[in-house]
Specification:
Shape: globular
Number of helices: 2
Radius of gyration: 16 Å
Oligomer: single chain
Strand content: 35-45%
Length: 133
């Protein structure tokens, strides 16, 4: 499978009056979180919430800023998440992809809305029983 890029929109969820940022994101289901370059964090006026240790592909461990809250949008679907500030491009990882109920179509090498939930995002949750006291 080749490299997949997807146009997404990013916004500062705590400051909805700020202009959103368009990004051509690298789609990487092998990564967990959203990663954004420092320029995008500055454009969205995101402050560091904490430091996170990230293991990069060559095995090195790097300390990076974790910022948020970020609103991510693709195909009219939204997710709210944080992001690690690193690299020179936006990387869309598995958690925001799951939250928006999108998946990689390996045959067409593109990101698509989940065909089982084409109109609105779906989710799987553990069943529970409500108990009343």
């Amino acid at each position: 499978m080749g490299t997949i890029f997807q146009h997404i929109r990013l916004a500062n969820a705590a400051k909805p009056d700020l202009e959103e940022v368009d990004a051509n994101a690298l789609v990487d289901s092998g990564s967990i979180d959203l990663c954004i370059p420092s320029l995008v964090a500055k454009q969205l006026r995101l402050s560091a919430i904490e430091q996170r240790i990230v293991t990069v592909a060559d095995g090195r461990k790097v300390s990076v800023d974790y910022v948020g809250p970020i609103k991510v949008e693709v195909f009219g679907r939204h997710a709210f998440t944080g992001a690690m500030v690193m690299g020179d491009m936006v990387l869309l990882g598995a958690i925001p992809m799951q939250a928006m109920d999108v998946l990689i179509d390996p045959r067409r090498e593109q990101l698509i809305p989940n065909p089982q939930n084409p109109d609105i995002p779906g989710a799987m949750v553990m069943s529970h029983r409500m108990t009343r006291k």
